[in-house]
């Protein structure tokens, strides 16, 4: 496992913790948890495809989130039973909402922008300093 994957993994754990906390505190709107769910999905896809471009990661993440949300329209008995478990509730959700689609869009856009403009700038600066020191 190389260093960027390790950093993204710890970031993933942080986002998961924040997402769970956001569901436990009643003053935080539910859309905040959906936003963080999308950010988590972006980071998870980034870990799996570390060398791919950010726009591809954003697209795969968005399609995954949308797919899971639209899957909530499917109401077979076996998936309803799965949704009643802790895993099913957190991963598959309970019911389809258009507001979740909006929250996922904003979450993935935010993750993409942060990675593209803030993290990439930092990595460029680090590589530039290393090359000059040689």
Structure description:
The protein is 81% helix and 0% strand. The chain has 134 residues and is mainly α. It is globular.
Strand content: under 5%
What's the gyration radius in Å?
17 Å
> What's the β-strand tally?
0
The helix content, as a percent range, equals over 70%
Strand-pairing-aware structural class = mainly alpha
Given the structure, what is the number of helices?
Answer: 6
- The unreliable regions are 124-134
Determine the oligomeric state from the structure.
single chain
Question: Which whole number gives the mean pLDDT?
Answer: 84
The biggest sheet, with number of strands, parallel, antiparallel or mixed sense and barrel status, is: none
SSE string: HHHHHH
What is the distance, rounded to the nearest whole angstrom, between the alpha carbons of the first and last residues?
A: 26 Å
Morphology:
globular
How would the blueprint of this fold be written?
Elements: H1 3-24, H2 30-48, H3 54-71, H4 77-83, H5 86-92, H6 98-133
